[in-house]
Amino acid sequence: MLATKAWIYGKLSTDASVLSAFTDTDHVTDAYPEKVEVFPLLVFMDKNQADMEYGDNAPVMSAQSFEVHVFTKLDLETTTNLSIPVYDLFRSLDFSCTMNGEVPDPVEGVRHRVMRFSRELFPSDLI
Q: How many domains does the chain have?
């Protein structure tokens, strides 16, 4: 198993564009909160890490999927603009965006965008 979650957190928490959009690392988390109270908020989760390509009876590659949630109380344009640096970072790491959509919550007045990214990773990719 590769330490992809820590690798992605390191990338998200040091990327200047992501930090600019989300204020600081207090607005970037790897755990879905019971209630979203900090805005804007970036939540990323390791959705799947399947073993692939075996050598000497051990996996040498992983098929990795991440899910990213962006929350804001602002308008649709702002939610989209907050999502762009996250999208760009994952794309720069050769992830494919497999889902990208809005999940509005008009009762709470929260804008919520969900994105999913996937790719196959070798240990040497985690630099």
A: 1
Q: Tell me the helices (H) and strands (E) count for the chain, helix number first.
A: 3, 5
Sign of the Cα pseudo-torsion (19, 22, 27, 31, in order): negative
- List the 96-102 sheet strands across, edge first: 28-29, 41-55, 58-72, 111-121, 96-102
Domain of 86, CATH number, reads 3.30.70.1700
Question: What is the domain range of residue 85?
Answer: 4-125
Nearest to 111 by CA among 80, 73, 69, 68: 73
Q: Does 85 sit behind a cis peptide bond, omega within 30 degrees of 0 on the bond before it?
A: no
Please tell me what DSSP assigns to residue 33.
-
The answer to whether 2 and 124 are in contact (CB under 8 A) is: no
Q: What is the model's pLDDT at position 96?
A: 98
pLDDT tens-digit readout, 9-53: 999 999 999 999 998 888 999 988 888 888 999 999 999 999 887
